[in-house]
## 1
Amino acid sequence: MTEGTHLSEPSPDAVIVDRGYRKYEGLRTGPRGTMLAIIKDGFRRVTGLRRKARRKVLPWFLIILALTTMVILVGIHWATSNTPADLVELPKNGEYFDIISIVALLFSALAIPELLVPDRAQGTLNVYFSRPLTVDRYLSAKALAIVTVLMAFYLVPQFLFHLGLAAVSDEGFLSYLAGNLDVLWKVPAVALVYVAVHGAVASTIAAFLPRVGAAAGVFLGSMLIFNLIAAFFQEATNFPGARYASLFAFEQHPRVVRDWVFGIDTVNYLPTRAGFEPVVSLAVAAVLVAIATIAVRWQYKRSA
Amino acid sequence: MTEPLIRTTNLTQNFGSVLALDGLDIEIPPGITGLVGANGAGKTTLLKIVLGLLAPTSGEVSVLGTLVSENPIGIRERIGYMPEDRCLPLDQTAADFVGYAAELAGIPSSESRRRSSETLFLVGLHEERFRYIGDFSTGMQQRVKLAQAIVHDPELVLLDEPASGLDPKGREQMLELIIRFGEFGINVVISSHILEDIEATCEWVVMLDGGKLIRSAPLEPPAEGDEVSVEVFGDPLSLISALADLGVEATADGPIVRVTSDEGQAFEVVRDALAASGSSVRRLGVSLSSLEDLFLEEAGNQYD
């Protein structure tokens, strides 16, 4: 020991304390806190936060892809801002759904099975349902998590796109925003229909399959196959009532609603060609949500 | 007896034509209780009814003074459950999972993280708490299961086969932890078919067989020293005869002779009888009345 360094002598009263176990006397958050915990966990799970790096790759690739398409579109608007409007017609918020919805379809295929399958496959429901949590409350929280995550996926790029269009607009930033206030309800309304249709189909599939990858594949495959079947029955057969097959073109119903809400005419979709009004597409979305609610609830009640 | 921890009245559970629990009337006192029975005896069914996860076909259960049927959700705030089956998310860290389990029981988020850390310290996983559960050994995973069962400060913990899949050292450590829970004032019910574990940890034992109660009583320490088993080479008749000459009654089971001395001098009596009969000893030792003997005897009586 060097001179001038002083170490205190060990106290004869010193004891090693076992930290033991601490009782919890504080408040409990109740059902609302429990549901909020499930939603927060769902958000982290879908985005791969607090998971291994490879779990982050796909969701963040799709998020960045969605934002990149938005930046490119704003850039095109800026580059053509001096071109007369009648010479070039560029996509705005309504048309942007054509791009974002494809990326969102892939994101739904990833996110919804990720929210539903692991809890069942890994057996963690045994722990969760031993807490003050009912099946209905658990499923409600999961549904809220699905809606929150997917709505965010649609709305954040749309919101930034809207600001971008305002920034490059000839009218000026504030004038553009003031002149397009209807976007504030149209975009969320249409996004909700997309989320309802994709969410309902993907949730139903995810509730019955034991693997995330399988559920994602079956979901994407089913959206494609239902479209093909609907097109086949409508175009290639003369069965009486074949037009009703167009109602099974699930992937096209949100697009029909989008065209209706934004007053645009992009493609003649199967339900439109079959003579169905857009409100029928809304009804199909509602029926899909109802079927999904019944099927998913039945499956979880059975296995809880 | 003080207010029972768990009281069942004529508790019956049918699964179709299968009678899982048959009119159980049990009173389990506070402390550490063992729930014993072969596979299919009704142990897990009883635990699920106590947790309020399963509504009994008939009869009633009260836990911690509350009728489960009246408040099945509320009671779970006061109970912890460690399932036998796999129940861990392998892609989450131990700290995240245990914290999430606390939040689901209504503990606020910041306090959940703190309690998660403390509880993992208690079960010996403090250093490893930020590792992914999928990278853990079986023993470490069992400790995580145990940690999630107590993180929300329950008054009662139900442990379903807690030592399942553990090596002897891991098993011993797990039993030591369970005994510590008793010291912390947490009541414990351990369901197990490993009777040695029950003997090592419990103060009370409930035995089930085929859904019927065969015993609910304090677990007495095994009597030691007053019964001796001796196995001899050849015919044991001469030894039995020598014992009779010394005024001691003995019973023979094949080559094994069991000797009981009222005065606690069984070894001395056997030594003298062996010398007198000239028998050669193959094996000699204390004869313990184990829980297994008791279980087999009681189960046998049930069907006599």
## 2
Amino acid sequence: MKLEDCKLGGTHLKSSDFEKCKVLTTEWTPNLGYAWDNGVAIGRYLAELKEGKIIARICHECHRIMLPPRMFCELCFRPTDEWTYVEDTGVVNTFSIARVNWDASRRGPKEPPLIPAVIEIDGATKGMGILHMLGEIGPDDVKIGMKVRAVWKKPEDRTGAITDILYFKPVRAAASKKAAAGRKR
Amino acid sequence: MVKRVAIVGIGTTGFRPITPDVSYRELIFEAARKAYTDAGIEPSEVDGFIAAAEDFIEGYSICDEYCPDQIGAVLKPTHTIAGDFIQALAAGYMMIMTGAFKTVTVESHSKASNIKNVDEVLGFAFDPVYNRPLRETPHAIAGLEMTRYMFETCTSSEQCAKVVVKNKGNAMRNPYAAFGADISEKDVMNSEPISLPLHRLDIAPHADGAVVAVLADGDTALALTDAPIWIEGLGWCTDTPTLEMRDWGEAAYARIAAEMAYKMAGIADPVGMIDFAEICDEYSFKELQHMEALKLCRPGEAAHLLESGATSFTGRLPINVSGGALGVGHLFEASGAHKILELVEQLRGHAGARQIPDVNIGLAQVWRGVPTATGAVAILSNM
């Protein structure tokens, strides 16, 4: 078959065709619903968040303290061994200053930017922690390596979700030492 | 020497109607850990990994990304097939035949219990212009097929009901099966009408579970195990999705997939060569329709073969001794995985109370379910 014969025919669309709504489409909005079983690791993690605590899981083979916790070590490929609580403080590994919302709508001129950050949690193996939001801080003041602490919802408002932590806020050096001493378990 | 590929390890969680005690990751880990222990190999030594999963069933966009951890594939060559486990098995076979991979892991699972509105997800598979606006139940597609199949082959609903009786009975010998039952043809015919001629008990209920298999090339397989299960034949194909143009009586997708697999396996006489088969019975009549498509009998003969007892546990061509989807549960992408698991257990002689004596060649066939016309066939042997 010749290349010019591969066309299916019809006429080209003009912008006036769109303006007059002559170009038809088929629309459908699915109604999908899922309820994922949390299982052992996520189930315990969320239950502890509801109590205002962060829990991790230890692999005795590679000695990693894994956060979020998991019942198996994906590297050693064996069941993990024990639970351990970690701190609700950590350091910023990386961050971004978001001027748009999750659905790409622009944040208003009066709205502060959202600052998602990956926080390496104290007590967990380096490089592991929580992806959350930073708060009580301006976008110009955020630095990699800065110390932060979880700001929790009131106990009665917690539901066993990652949002039981409202955000992480900066900790000043002096306050951070004092707070760490006060929170020893 | 012609290069061969074998299954050297397999692991499963078994199949249950619900699994609220574990996440899908924890479910899959158990099957994967068992498969590696069975194969005597660690995932760190495996060259490639394939998962069979589909986004709308998982409830994730790009669910491929969530596969590595629980099968030991972190930072390893990994991809996902949006199809059945047997299609993933074929992909694994081809990876090994390239010579670039000596070992490949293939995974599939079902967490069907986590989908809150399964019919809506299945309905979302319908053509949005021609079919979805009619709001027919997905089961109606199977009802349409069943009516035409019964018309063309002079098969009755009562005969289809006997498939359910046989398979749910077989499932009672299978510790992995969730839906074993001692019922009668009358129980099926008296069950709630769904989309006639289909009754409630003609339809396989959903189940959760995971299966992981480890494949290896011939030399590696023989170094790992004394009992490799060889992949002798593979075939798969898809008919047009256009419901208005499809052959409603015959399962052409199964016939052509089987022809491809028989040719690859060098099987000219399936009836004489195949010792037993696990074939898709997601709806009762499908087992009969698929037997004919697989050339295990002539068109119109399947129901008579069933009634003669030839396809029963003790018959000359046992079909779905595991209990099939009617007895084990429908597992979405893992449907083929359960059939391959059964073949491996039978061919190793590890099938316990449901072991068929002296079997050497088994056939597994799967269909992707309504409204698809996709089928895959695998032929395995222990010789």
## 3
Amino acid sequence: MDAPQTAAGRFARRHRFRWWELLPWIAAVAAFFAFPTYLAFGTQLLITILFALSLDLVLGYAGIVTLGHAAFFGAGAYTVGMLASHLGWNEPLSGLLAAAVVAGLIGLVSGLVLLRTHGLTLLMLTLCTMALLEQAANMGAHWTGGFDGIPGLSFGKILGLFSFDVLYFRSQYLYVLVVLLLCFLVVRTLVYSSFGQSLTGVRENLLRMHAVGAPVRARLVIAYTISAALAGVAGGLFTQATGYVNLSALSLERAAGLLIILILGGYGRLYGAFVGAVAYMVLEHVLAKAYPTAWQLGIGVTLVMVALYARNGIIGIGEALMRRLRGANTA
Amino acid sequence: MSTARLETKGLSKNFGALEVAREVNFRLEAGARHALIGPNGAGKTTFINLLTGALAPSKGKVLLEGEDLTGLPQARRVKRGIARTFQINQLFRGLTVLENVCIPVFERMGLGGGMLRAAGRRAEVLAEAMRLIEMLKLGEDAGRRIVELPYGRQRLVEIAIALGLAPRVLLLDEPAAGIPSAETHILLDAIASLPRDIAVLIIEHDMEVVFRFAERITVLVNGAVYAEGAPQQIAANREVRAVYLGNALDA
């Protein structure tokens, strides 16, 4: 087949599922049976993947540089926590929905203001938004529990059938896995749609997007809102799975850690969120065991190596290897 | 006089005391092959920015087929059919040529906000993008990313993106800039083969390109129209030669 046909065919088929896309889900189910004592850790890992995925939509695809994404994670986490503790609203699925709506609204309102700016200004403003929310949560002690947060929450049965399993995290793990899968399908559909294509256009050349008549700011605000809602779901899952929420949900540490995860895995690549979250959390787990006081040093060194030698993260290394293999085959 | 495809009336722009466009009255006829020339800093690119709406004029009007566009933002003017290319490439560098050309086609067809259907399943967009890519003889590079292309090929993508908007008026800002002279003929052929229902205004320093392509030439000096006429008239105009053409033509 000649080059133009090949290119057109590849474009027309790029959204189709490939066999290897099943691997993360098979791995996740296998882990459920293989590591029954690690399911609490596994649940955190899945939540982190969802959170990273939401960041990838804005950072990786739309090119919105943000350091304040924990604002939306925290908004979702506190929404679920406050509904449960104050209103006794502890039905899990509607709680998640509420988390998505609240976080999405905060994303929409802040996005309308912030996305007039870009670059460093935008970065600082996202940081400010998160700091404002963190302070609000700190000071509104009556509602949020202030510095101590809201501990000891309990939630109703999932779909009225499966109760949360405090000891072994079995139901939490599967519940979070299913929510992650659904959210992943949403993000995947978005990035392969014409909307997703226009977001990559904004990322690659803002000036040209204006020149082709695209409503750039509206697109960015929509993407930011959706991403915020997904981060809110991740936060809501966190509160439901652990039964508490505190200020760490809104912290810079969480936001910055997420950025490291996405850079480690490779941003703008959909699966970078998966690989990055696994790499980061396993690294953290292992390093913290070996060097309880200095484990962050290991993360730092890894990040420097990635920044210097693997700009596209772990997934990028895989892509380069695949290219080389294919090159060797055709040669 | 009939209505021009694109017309400006008394178009002026100043940045503080600096006048970059002075009372420009300009007509681009339907099907025109019109060149805008002038020394560096004459205000040629500013004039394009005023036409596209990237800049707002201090005074005067821009009319498309008699309709006043002056207050409209850039995006609305694009919808009305004004497309431009850039003097310095403004491409989606990390994306393939095909994706680059699909982006404007999506916008033109009003599909840029579509979230559910995969971009690859919009057969009409894909077909249109491939048609333009073939028209500019970029077929072999359709699947390559911009960063992998030599500069001359990138300049063609620059035009393909503008054509993806199905413009009625195409503004080419120094399309041949930076292309090795041995390759300019590819670009010239591409411009020469543009359909006649597109009115083309070209800004160019390369006089060979200008005189091969243009059927009418406007000379801009210090933001004002200095002379206008058929290529022979402009070439014969002593003052124009003195101001601008002299060196280029004698060289």
